[in-house]
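Homework-ish question, so no full write-ups if that breaks the rules, but can someone show me the predicted structure for this set?
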Amino acid sequence: MEFRSNKVLLVKVLLFLVILMVSGLGVFGCVGRGSIPKGWSGGVVAEDTLFLGSMKGKLVAIDILSHTRLWEVPLETSEQAGGFGCAPASTAVAIYGSPAVAEELVYVSGYNGKIYAFSVGKDEPRWVYPREDNLQPIVGGAIVAQGKVYMGCSDGKVYALDAADGYKQWEFQTGDKIWSTPVIDGDTLFIASFDKKLYALDATNGSKKWEFETGGAIASTPFVYNNTIYIGSFDRHLYAVNATDGSLVWKLEVKADKWFWTKPVICNNTIYAGNLDGKVYILNAETGDEVVDAIDLVSPISSSPVLVDDSVIIASEEGRVWTIDTSNNQESELINLGQKIYAPLYASDGVVYIHTSEGSLHALNAQSGSKLWSLSLSS
Amino acid sequence: MEVIGQAWNLIILEPIVNVLIVLAHSLFSSFGLAIIALTIVVNGCMYPLTLKQIRASKAMQTLQPKLAELQKKHAKDKEKLAKEQMQLYKESGVSPAGCIVPMLIQMPIWIALYQSIMRLLAVTPEDFLGLSQYLYSWPVVYSALPLGDKFLWLNLAIPDSYLVLPLLVGGTMWLQQKMITPTTADPKQQTQSKMMLWIMPLMFAFITLSFPSGLALFWVTSSAIRIVIQYFVTGWGGLVKGTTPKPVGRDKKYMKRIAQVEERPSEYADTGADIVEPSSGQEEGKDYGESGDKRQDRGRGDSERLKGIRRQPGRDRSHRPKRR
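A: Not a homework solution, just the prediction itself:
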């Protein structure tokens, strides 16, 4: 009798353990670390085609005239084993950086630590770097100039690859992760790192020209204007640095409440810099003095704004899109998309393209804010 | 609901996140050391509550044989059973809330600590971006980020590929559980104890396979601290065969009261427990309470004492001994 009761209990225990493990797998197990990278790629337009990385890990080409999908290709085609009895993991690779287009090739980097070059319409990449293994996650975007592709990586290195075949030309090691997208001006490449420094590198061979240290890590992309680099840091300051020698021109003395995460824009010698405290700081580009009080958009600004004619189009994280008239620095709300916005905005021919965290692409009239069309990229 | 969330972030989560950053900055920029240090500090702050909980749990364990007997006896009369149990708790000075309340108070702190570590590990860029909303405007906080994710052989943001941490998590939890598992002669209770002994460690070891190492480091440190506290309160407990937890300090008060309950059987009679004279309850209770080194003896002693808690055939309430 006792044996029987023990047996029943044992069965119950085993059953309980099985349920526990199954629910454990569902909740934590196969998703990896409990949090999944989704991506926030912006778009880029070339010859009536908009390219962007979707939340489903695909490089997508959209005809902006007919608003239809022309072509799409997933960055990963092979399944990865789940391990520990998990089903094979999802093949979707998060794409954070906006694609770059040059010479019939589209370049896109993935969070899987690879950069791909695709010929439009082809399912197989022209080349992949690295060909074997993977680098650390790539969060910033890639740029193409002078026959080379430049990008930063979470391993702290800046890579320059041959744009035609993907062979490495040079690399430069910084002190920490790089999530910033590089910017090129003449033969100088500017890129920022989490090691708190802004670097100026010789674009031909990767040698360092100068470095400038801020008080915090830098994730934003530099903005070059009139031989000056404008960049925001986690130390809540915005910096203007001389592009020739890396000396400080000015530093925003009015401290923002949070990090500067996005790239600023400049119009009529006035700089517009969004901050994660939800404010847009409007400063004189030459002196750093505040032109007017910061505009409070309430929600954090984590997507880079764009300039369309004389208006700065800027989106707050909660999904509201605003326009700031640069003639009088007055803001007005264009539209509330109701979806979170992290991806940088992109403008072409008076149309602003916004990729939301729900995986939708919206095309807005930059002047009226009316929605021209929307396309779901979640499928 | 949103207000509760904001209050939670403001009062609990944000202070812990920022303190962790400052600690990491002060401890050689090591987030691993910061996790260990904060776990120790939080455990230190909650030491009185932990102690109270351990003592109450231990006292509850000593009452288990009596409770089991009452359950058996009043299986069909739930109301009476509840009344009897309450009376027993009251007389022995043991409160079931004594185990639960300290645990409930500690729970939000553990949850906040867990959330803080997860936020600071910022496994994905989205997590990292979200972290900015929890930071104070202290210069040290802004200059210290992002925190380094290397600690010993570990990358704190990803699971331990060498499987050392899952083993450590499971091992320390098993040790801790084993220390508090009572030895019992009842096969049903034995099975239950075994179940409890294995389920939690296995579950946590399994979860550790997929969670960031930083979180596992927090679990290992917490378990290690609990083992130390447990040792000073109850000794090695169930880890050493044939021993029973040693009572110290306030434990003795519980034990004395429990012994006193056993001394006064007529009070049970008064509450309808149908108790007749217990067998040498007072002396046994005292011996157990002070020597505390013979768990087997205790089991036997309890069952012998419980022989006294029996319904006397042919007797009804009117024949029960009157209250002294």
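Now go work out the reasoning yourself. Hint: The radius of gyration of chain A is 23 Å.
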